[in-house]
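User: Structure with fe (iii) ion, tokens only please.
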Amino acid sequence: MFDLVIDNARIYPLAQDLSILPARSMAVAGGRIAAFDIPPTEESRLRLDARGQAILPGLVDCHTHAVFAGDRLEEYLARLAGANYAGQHRAGGGILKTVHATRQASFAQLLDCSLKHVAPLVAEGVTTLEIKSGYGLDHDSEIKILTVAAAMAPILKIRIVPTFLGAHAVPVPLKRQAYLDWVVDEMLPEVVALRLARSVDIFVDRIAFTPEDLDRLFERAQALSCRLHAHTDQLGHTGATRRAARWKACSCDHLEHAAPEDVRALAESGTVAVLLPIASSFLGDAPPPPVAALRAAGVPIAIASDLNPGTAPVASLLWASATAIRLWGLTPTEALLGITRQAARALDPDADFGTLAVGQSADFGIWDIPRPESLLYAPASHRPVMSFFQGALR
Ligand code: NIG
Ligand code: FE
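Assistant:
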């Protein structure tokens, strides 16, 4: 007996390409996809007629900084008038401005504004959302952020994947080395012990941490069985991409300044390249990431919103995906797999979501669109008619 059968649907698994399944029905049992092509005689607790509409996997946003307070409008306007991001950071603004606002917010206030930040993503069909800490940078504030992220999952009825990004910036007045020691030796083990995150990230850049810091963090994180992620080669080339690849990181994110050798390293390690076109376009002065080289080397490419107040204040994964096509020449197939299957792999190489196949988590949307590419052609015009998470209507 199935829990749910959806009949008369056009099913797009987004496993390798945008092709449609010959089967017109899909069954769910115990929160997972149980079968395709269900005879009308099969018993199910519920049967739905999709009336020819499309079924696509739930969207996966694999890189966000969605738990924060305040905004950075003034800095954005200053950049439009000629200021630059690294300069704003060095002057005590940037990430540290958001750290200040986030530390001030109570748990309830932070939960409330974070739910507002992600509402457009959820409305657009996102059923898995990664959220990084990194706007706390002290014990209680980092714990507060990760606890808020965890509290959002049952409210939104989606999967939240929390990531510990204590190594996002050095909080004044601390010195980089002393702060990193604390992140690696005290905070990371505590976060893991409290089960607040199983993934770790670091911002390697001339305004943040060094490739050697990445080695220190990843050594400890790997010993604690964490999944590894890094912000690399965003504002300039540091060599951190190839370092992260040596650790077999799940993903390297940004990559605008990655060199051919970095791309080769990603290909060898099976690391997913996460591209963040909204951040790139809002910063305005970034070169394109090496898309052709990534493609030629067979590096899996994911796309994420990077939702954050500094560089990516646009809560739309579809917009990110459509922008990757327009700005950087991704194909529609790369753009759609980039926000489903490859984004799931970026979070977890063994992910059981992000595509439609028997045994996978039943996370999917029903869309009134003629073909999957419609989402990229008119990204602001489409919302799922219904969205399911683990087999339940959201
Ligand atoms: O992904 N690069 C570092 N972190 C964020 C920006 C954070 C911020 O400016 O608040 C990013 O672009
Ligand atoms: Fe980021």
